[in-house]
Each structure stands twice: as C-alpha cells, then as structure tokens.
Amino acid sequence: MMTSAKPNALHLGILVVLAALFFVLPAYHVGAFSRIMVLAIYAIGFNLLFGYTGLLSLGHAMFFAAGMYGFGLSTNLGGLPVVPAFAIGVIAAGLLAFAAGYLALRTVGVAFMIVTLMFAQTFYLVILYFGEYTRGDEGFIVQQAQRSLFGVDLTSETARYFTAFVLFAICFLVMARLVQSPFGKRLVAIRENEERARMLGYDVGRLKLMALVVSGLISGVAGAAYALLFGYVGASFAAVHYSIFPLLWVLLGGAGTTIGPLIGVIFMFYLIDVSSGFTNAYMLVAGLALVLLTLFAPQGLAGTLRKRALRWLP
Amino acid sequence: MDFGPHLMLASIEGAVISAILVLTAMGLSIVFGVMRVVNVAHGEFFMLGAVFAWAVTTTVSGHPALGFVAALVIAPVLVGCIAAGVDRVILKRIGYDVDRTIVATIGILYIVQQSTLMLYGPEARPVVPPFNARLALPWFEFGDNGFQMFWPWGLSVTTYKLFVIVAAIAVLGALWLVLTRTKIGLIMRATQQDRDMAQAFGVPVARVYSWVFGLGAGLAALGATLVVPIQQAHYLMGGDPLLLAFIVVIIGGLGSLPGTVIAAVLIGMSDGIISVFFSPTLAKIIATFLVAMVLVFRPQGLMGRAAA
What we know:
The complex is a heterodimer of chains A (314) and B (308).
Chain A: H1 5-24, H2 27-52, H3 61-76, H4 82-104, H5 109-129, H6 131-134, E1 140-141, E2 148-149, E3 152-153, H7 157-180, H8 182-192, H9 194-199, H10 204-230, E4 232-233, H11 241-253, H12 260-275, H13 283-296, H14 300-308
Antiparallel strand pairs in A: 1-4, 2-3
Helix pairs in contact in A: 1-7, 2-7, 2-10, 2-11, 2-12, 3-4, 3-10, 4-10, 7-10, 8-10, 11-12, 11-14
Chain B: H1 3-35, H2 42-59, H3 64-91, H4 98-120, E1 134-136, E2 139-143, E3 146-150, E4 156-158, H5 159-181, H6 183-193, H7 195-200, H8 205-227, H9 239-252, H10 257-277, H11 280-297
Antiparallel strand pairs in B: 1-4, 2-3
C-alpha cells in the first residue's frame, strides 16, 4: 500500500539509526541505550493498552516483575539455561495478565486503575513475603555464567547492546504491524467509543482481555530482558514507581503512536540522568513532567507532532 | 500478659489508627464525593501536615503544648491553602477530567514528596507530645475469689493517645454539623448533587471546588498533626495513609460519608489487632487483595448504593 510506505520507512530508519548509534556513541551512552531499548519494550507493551485501547493500568509493574522474576528465579534456583528461563518469564507475565485482566476488566474507569494498582501492590508484597527465595528489596544477581546464549557471553557491551536491539526491533515491528491490523483497529474503536464498538458486534470484553494479555506479555519480555542483560532482579522493579514510569514515558512520547514509547523513554532517561547529577530528588523531574504534560501537551511529543505537521505519523 | 489484656492493648492501638484514618479518609471521601476527583496526592498532603507540624513546634519556644496547639491550627490551614492553590493552578485548567486528574495528581505527589526531600531532608524527625502521662488500665477477671480487678503489668495507655481519639471524634462531629446544619454544607451538597444546576442557582462552583479540595487536604494534615507525636515526620510517610484511605473509601462506598466512618473504624481496628498478632506483610497482602476483590465484585462498596 502507498499509505504505509512512509511509516515503514520511518520505522526502518529508526532501527538503522539505533544500530548505527552503537558505533558512534561513547561507551557510557552505549550502555544507556541498551537500557533505554529494554525499557522502551516495556513502554511499547504499556502503550498497546493505554494508548490504543484506552485502558489506564496503574499496575503494569507486576507484569514487568513477573517476567523478571520468572527468568531470574528459574535460572538461579532452577538452574535453567537462558531460552527456557526467558520463556518461563514471559509466560508467567502472560498468565498473570490473563488472571488480573479477567478480574480487573469487570470494572471500568477509576475502579480499573485502583484494582490494577492493588493487584500490583499485592504482587509486590508477595515478593517481599517470600524474601527467602526472592531476597526482597535487596534483590539478587543473575550470575555471569548463566547469562550466555549459544556460547555468546551476553554480559559484554556489544552482545548486550545487540540483544537489546534485536528484542526491541522485534517488539517494535510486531507492534507497528499489530496496530494496523484489524485487531488493532478494533482496539482503537473501543478507545474511541466502547458502546459503539459493542453495538457493531465486537466482543469488547474479549478484545480488552486480549489487549491486556498481549500488553502483559510484552512487558514480561522487557522484564526478563532486563534481568538477562543487566543481571539484577529486585523488588523495587515491582513497586509503584515502575507502574508509573511507563505511563510517564508513553504520555511524554505520545500515547497511541508507534514511535512515542521510544521517544518518551529516551527523553525521560536522560532527563533523570542529568538531574540526578544535581540532586537526589530526581523524581521531582518526573512529577513536573507529568503535570506539565497533562496541562499543555496531553498528546505527548509524537502526538503533538502528528497534529501539527506530520499527519501520516503512525 | 494474658490474651485478654493483650487484645485490649491491641484494640486501643487500633482505635488510635482508626482515629487518624477516619480524618484522612474523610478528606479523600469529601473530595471524591463533591468533585469526583481521585486525589492520588492525598497522602502527600498528609505528609506535608506532619512536616509543617514539626516545623511549627520547633519554632515556637516555651511549653510543648503551646507549639502543638499552634501546629494544630497552622499546619492544616497552610496545607489547605496549598491544596486550594493546586486546584486553581492545575486541576481547574484540565477541567477535572477523570483520567487527566489522576495523572496530574500522580505528578503532584512526586513534586510535593521530592520537594520535601530537598528542603526538609531524608531524616525522620519527632515532635514532643504536649502531654504524655501513662495511665495504667485495670483488667477484670473472674477468679477463685469471685470477680476481681487487678492491674496487669504493661497494660497502659498514654493520655496523648486518648486525646487523639477524642479529638478525632470532636472534629468528625464538627464536620457533620457543618455539612448538615450550615449554609456552607448546603452549598457543598448542592454542588455534589448537580454541579450545573448549582451553578445556575448562583453557587460559585469553581470557588466551592477550591475550598473542598483545601478542606480535604486540611483534614489529612490535621490527622497527620495529631499523629506526629506518636509517629515521626518523614518525607515518605504519605504512602501508607494513602493506600489505607483508599481502601476505606472504597469499602465504605465511594462518596458515602457514613460508610467512610464505619469502614475507617473497621479497617483501623483490624489493622491494629492483626499487626499485633500476625505478620504485618501477610496482613497487608490479604487486606490489599481483599479490597481489590471488593472493588471487582461490589464496585459500589459495602455501604454505597448502586452507581448513579
């Protein structure tokens, strides 16, 4: 199709730039971008639910943490190699998303936000309660020996960057495709007018549950990837902060746009990185960003760009 | 100590928790009832109240009671003014849209919390209670010599804790009188029932909203001022009251004030008793999950009517 030529070029261009950055950037920023790409996967997962389906979950940290702990515990306690452990992490996140969605989607609006928040809080407390295995707040390290794939040591800077890149590229392209598919269009229809979507004969409840499960799966991929590439698993990744972060990234970058999550993560990452050099109260920046965004740019950077200049922006 | 006296001690702790909780949750409930705003920053107004109370009591010299009385007035009023300002500058401009107010109040939460960290620091600071005599409590038992009264070792309460309970009841009574018997209450109830109609009848709705938001935050700050002599002022102390207040407001039925009071007493008492006898983490897990379930299967709360 002609209409999708520009977005496709944009997506491929972004991936080419990300791959090229590895050879251009100094070492510190290469490390930062490995992290940014993993977090961007998380933001992409959140965006499907919040940006496209219009459901605001305040408990996504539980899916991220499920992926992280699913991977971390099965390598550390179960001694499994990377691939099955990774799969366990992602499946754990998906199952949790299904269970949480099955219950939480009975509610709408404010109640949905509070229920997801409380499920995530329960999950966080459960991690603390089983401190014997999870080491609670302190967390645990995934040993370097357990972090190699097909003989490649993933702890080296190069391997880490390109693993993050490949995972990001897959999620990014799959999501770009998914939101243009009939499934994605139906989710947007629910966001725009749930009653009308229902009246047109779509099974709204089922679609919402599917969106939540896919969103949870992708968040689980991000969590498992984080544990795999950075070797640390801790309860702080299940805390409220990590449910708020993806909201912040997606709002900043532009909810309901394919490139928004990545833009949001890059901006927020460097904003916090710079400000934490000056003060330990770096979350102040996050707070200010949230308030200013709701006041002046509710559509985020990519959303505003789409509205002002580039109407074809996906 | 035997089980009986132990339980009594736990109940007194529970009553103190309930007293603070009822004030905090009432603030949240009024804001939600009148404005339909879910104020995620409510816990931070609580924390701000405690920090201001500390600031006032350390500046005022002389008898600790003098400083404390000053704090009891100044902290809630100051926090109320800040909240009213927040309403004017932020919430009003986003038109009280449900999703956007939640996101904005999450932002306000971080702004208030992190500014406090910068200006006040990460230390927990105590406030001297104005009076703190220890009262021994008697226990009655039916023993070999018939009904007898004795004084078990360790069964006691401080006068300050009793004062907290009495003060909370007094504030609650005053609030009830204001809401049901005065013109201010009438205006608030009118705004709650139908915002547009109230506006048509000349109620300055925008101003009422600012006052209500200030009142809600002020109630949280008042609860915090009462609690600082027992629990120290710290910049992260807002998290637990927020979660508990949310739980109370949900269980009580969103927007139902009598429901809020009953739920606060219920949750506060059980929190006090459970945390004396069981692992606090396990208690929190069960409580949080159960509340989520209440919301899933009975969204109108235990006391609320079906959503209008």
